[in-house]
């Protein structure tokens, strides 16, 4: 013999309430039948009001509590269903929240991947530019990072104790002579720094990417970057980013550091002058 499946609790409650309602109707029918059976009804005579009242009290005393109990059962069942519905809604909200978190994490991963793809492409392009740098002098070729060594020798040959005069001689003897090669390198470096600076990452993360840019820069290369900054001081663009992220930290020789300090003072003086003029 196959056992009948167990009914869900909510079906049992509904069946119980329905049974109580049916029981109430059966009581009404039974009491009514007894009333009719025990009472002779003459259409020409008035009904026995006392007897009718007594039977009504019997029906009310029995059926009222039964139907009240049925109402309580339905109310209890409704509360359970409401609580279950609220629980399901909370579960759905939690699942939605988790899905949103996963979506945000996925978007963050994609954003980082997209940023790093461009970032490392720019670094690769900068390295290619450095490899393509070359100077021919006295039957000798200085290529790649040796290019910066050649220019650094030229910088060391500049004789001047005064900062502005030194920068002018650099501009005339080095920058203007090798402008085509240097400008391409400097512009790409600036684009790389600007790309990191304008990203939506926090400052610590940005500085981490700048550390990657800084790592391969040699002292000779840093020297050229610095004097290109000094040559283009009026634009501030490259200078601002190099100083903001300390790109040349621990990369300059003693003489360059002295000039760096003077450049910093010039920038500070210009900033103060600009603020003063805006205030007036």
Q: Could you list some keywords that capture this structure?
A:
280 residues, mainly alpha, two-stranded antiparallel sheet, 77% helix, rod-shaped
Strand content: under 5%
Q: Let me know the number of strands.
A: 2
What structural class do helix, strand and pairing data support? mainly alpha
H/E element sequence: HHEEHHHHHHH
Stretches where pLDDT is under 50 for at least 5 consecutive residues are none
Q: Looking at the chains present, what oligomeric state does this protein adopt? A: single chain
Termini separation comes to 102 Å
Average per-residue pLDDT, rounded, comes to 78
Helix content: over 70%
User: What is the count of DSSP helices, taking H or I runs of 4+ residues?
Assistant: 9
Which geometry do the CA atoms define? Answer: rod-shaped
How are the strands of the largest sheet arranged? 1-2
Main sheet: strands, sense, barrel: 2 strands, antiparallel
Radius of gyration: 46 Å
């Amino acid at each position: 013999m196959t056992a009948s499946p167990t009914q869900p609790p909510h079906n049992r409650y509904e069946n119980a309430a329905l049974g109580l309602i049916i029981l109430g109707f059966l009581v009404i029918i039974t009491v009514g039948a007894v009333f009719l059976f025990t009472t002779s009804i003459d259409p020409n005579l008035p009904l026995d009001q006392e007897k009718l009242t007594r039977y009504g009290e019997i029906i009310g005393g029995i059926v009222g509590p039964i139907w009240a109990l049925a109402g309580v059962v339905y109310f209890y069942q409704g509360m359970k269903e409401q609580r279950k519905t609220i629980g399901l809604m909370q579960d759905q909200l939690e699942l939605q929240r988790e899905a949103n978190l996963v979506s945000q994490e996925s978007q963050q991963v994609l954003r980082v991947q997209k940023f790093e793809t461009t970032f490392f492409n720019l670094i690769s392009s900068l390295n290619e530019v450095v490899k393509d740098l070359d100077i021919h002098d006295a039957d000798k070729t200085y290529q790649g990072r040796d290019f910066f060594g050649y220019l650094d020798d030229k910088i060391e040959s500049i004789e001047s104790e005064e900062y502005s005069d030194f920068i002018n001689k650099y501009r005339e003897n080095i920058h203007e002579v090798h402008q085509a090669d240097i400008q391409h390198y400097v512009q790409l470096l600036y684009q790389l720094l600007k790309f990191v600076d304008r990203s939506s990452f926090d400052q610590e993360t940005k500085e981490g990417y700048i550390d990657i840019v800084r790592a391969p820069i040699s002292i000779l290369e840093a020297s050229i970057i610095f004097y290109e900054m000094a040559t283009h001081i009026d634009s501030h663009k490259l200078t601002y980013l190099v100083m903001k992220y300390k790109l040349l930290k621990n990369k300059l020789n003693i003489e360059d550091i002295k000039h760096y300090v003077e450049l910093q003072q010039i920038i500070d003086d210009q900033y103060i002058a600009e603020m003063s003029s805006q205030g007036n």
